[in-house]
């Protein structure tokens, strides 16, 4: 009696707990249904009912097909008994596969239902937006001007135009100095240059005014690119001051002209800053920017290489200088001393000679011939220095400099941000193509319509993203699980799925698998203990079947 009572109490407790959970779930579903019904608008009642009927018919059809599969699988499986657990395993596996397909199908149907609901909300929102468009059309004149200035200053055409203006201004500066160096006073050429400088000053003033309106005074002079802002302001102000001085010089007398010339010379120095402005082309030319970043990143390696070269030059300079000094002391009347002292008279002279010999500044056979007069051993030592410097040191220097340059260019923050920005822009263009309604969200139906498009395939291939079907990729990109993709979800999801798996991704996957194995091991252990507890009290074995796969094996990683 005690064993039967224990089993009965356990069954009642499990049944009571299951009823409580189901009751809570039903209450939550009823509350959710009431909230959804209260949010639905009257204009879409008929459409919602039509969609609901279609969804019920599709669900009934799907359930009928799945039930037929269940009946077929149950007919194929033999009858279960308390002592034949091996025969019941195929039936359980078939039921699990059918259940998995049912769960996947239900998730896909939920996504379709969510797509229909979003489409209805978009229709209602479009009708509401038509009534509120006229009230929101008016905006401030200042905001409109600032918006236009932002669009103009951020366009590539604007940047390339003023890039060409800066380059042509630098060329004009060189031509003007070349003509001035010929010492030919030509009033016509001076007037022409004055007009051209005035045109360039107006163009630069227009550029700085547009950028000031777009960014604002504080952001332009105190923002991230404050150095370029101050440089542009100084160049524009100095250009106008120089123009004013030249106009006054041409219209004034001799005394006033001499004083203005001194002022003009001072501000003419600022013309050098106009050539510095040409460095701004680095922002627009990707290849040139990569080269400049590579050179800047390789300066650290270049410093240590030059330090090693100086150390080698210093060591050999001491050896050769000591040999020449010893020869001069022992043979003060030698006729070869002047030539020897020309190349190796002091340590600094010897270092200069060796440096020129390495970098082809002097034919190294000439100092070698002078050292040969001291003895063949000094000539061999000099030849060893040339071989060490040119065949070993310079080749290592070239390889290390190239490697450092490539790494610096790849790790540069601006280059990485540019690549990431380019990917975001490509994803945004593709998202805009999928978002046919223009509401900033896409559903599974819209995603499936564009999945087989060539632009979509090209974009996924460029990111090295592969998916079996549209639903798998859509479900992977849908991070919050609401069956609706936003622009941020689409772009961030594509960036996360881009490329091959990294070591950190593999490590995270291994940690998740380890945690899942531990949880499954705990459940299997609890299941086994509970089965043994009931079997000891003569409980029916079929009520608590053992683990189908037997003992759980933990694979070490």
UniProtKB/TrEMBL annotation:
It is found in: Membrane. GO terms for biological process: calcium ion import across plasma membrane. Pfam families: Ion_trans (PF00520). Residues 84-98 have a biased composition (Polar residues). It is a multi-pass membrane protein. Residues 60-98 are annotated as: Disordered. The keyword Transmembrane applies. The chain crosses the membrane at residues 161-181, 193-214, 302-321, 378-401. This is Scn11a protein. The gene is Scn11a.
């Amino acid at each position: 009696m005690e064993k039967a009572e224990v089993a009965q109490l356990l069954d009642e407790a499990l049944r009571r707990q299951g009823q409580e959970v189901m009751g809570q779930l039903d209450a939550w579903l009823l509350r959710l249904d009431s909230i959804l019904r209260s949010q639905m608008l009257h204009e879409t009642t008929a459409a919602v009912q039509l969609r609901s009927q279609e969804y019920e018919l599709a669900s009934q059809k799907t359930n009928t097909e799945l039930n037929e599969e269940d009946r077929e699988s149950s007919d194929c499986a033999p009858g279960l008994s308390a002592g034949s657990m091996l025969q019941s395993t195929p039936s359980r596996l078939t039921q699990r596969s059918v259940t998995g397909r049912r769960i996947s199908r239900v998730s896909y149907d939920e996504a379709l239902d969510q797509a229909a609901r979003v489409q209805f909300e978009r229709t209602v929102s479009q009708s509401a937006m038509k009534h509120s468009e006229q009230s929101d059309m008016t905006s401030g004149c200042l905001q409109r001007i600032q918006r236009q200035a932002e669009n103009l200053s951020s366009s590539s055409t604007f940047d390339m135009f003023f890039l060409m203006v800066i380059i042509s201004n630098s060329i004009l500066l060189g031509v003007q100095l070349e003509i001035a160096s010929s010492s030919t006073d030509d009033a016509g050429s001076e007037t022409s240059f004055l007009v051209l400088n005035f045109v360039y000053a107006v163009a630069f003033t227009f550029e700085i005014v547009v950028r000031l309106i777009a960014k604002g005074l504080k952001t332009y002079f105190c923002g991230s690119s404050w150095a370029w802002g101050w440089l542009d302001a100084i160049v524009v102000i100095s250009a106008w001051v120089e123009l004013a001085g030249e106009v006054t010089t041409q219209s004034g007398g001799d005394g006033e002209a001499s004083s203005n010339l001194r002022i003009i010379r001072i501000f003419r120095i600022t013309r050098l800053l106009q050539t510095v402005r040409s460095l701004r082309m680095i922002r627009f030319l990707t290849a040139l920017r990569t080269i400049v970043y590579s050179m800047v990143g390789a300066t650290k390696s270049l410093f240590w290489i030059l330090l090693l070269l100086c150390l080698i030059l210093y060591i050999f300079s001491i050896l050769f200088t000591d040999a020449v000094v010893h020869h001069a002391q022992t043979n003060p009347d030698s006729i070869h001393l002047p030539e020897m002292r020309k190349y190796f008279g002091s340590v600094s002279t010897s270092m200069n000679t060796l440096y020129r010999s390495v970098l082809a500044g002097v034919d190294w056979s000439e100092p070698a011939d002078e050292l040969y007069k001291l003895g063949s051993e000094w000539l061999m030592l000099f030849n060893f220095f040339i071989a060490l410097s040119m065949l070993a040191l310079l080749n290592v220097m070239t390889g290390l400099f190239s490697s450092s340059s490539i790494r610096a260019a790849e790790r540069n923050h601006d280059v990485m941000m540019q690549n990431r920005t380019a990917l975001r822009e490509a994803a945004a263009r593709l998202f805009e193509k999928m978002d046919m309604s223009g509401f900033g969200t896409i559903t599974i139906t819209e995603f499936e319509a564009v999945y087989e498009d060539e632009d979509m395939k090209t974009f996924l291939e460029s990111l090295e993203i592969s998916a079996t079907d549209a639903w798998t990729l859509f479900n992977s990109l849908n991070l919050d699980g609401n069956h609706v993709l936003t622009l941020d979800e689409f772009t961030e999801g594509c960036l996360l799925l881009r490329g091959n798996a990294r070591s950190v991704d593999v490590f995270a996957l291994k940690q998740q698998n380890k945690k899942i194995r531990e949880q499954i091991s705990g459940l299997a252990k609890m299941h086994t203990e509970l089965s043994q507890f009931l079997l000891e009290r003569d409980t029916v074995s079929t009520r608590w079947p053992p683990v189908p796969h037997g003992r759980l094996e933990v694979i070490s990683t």
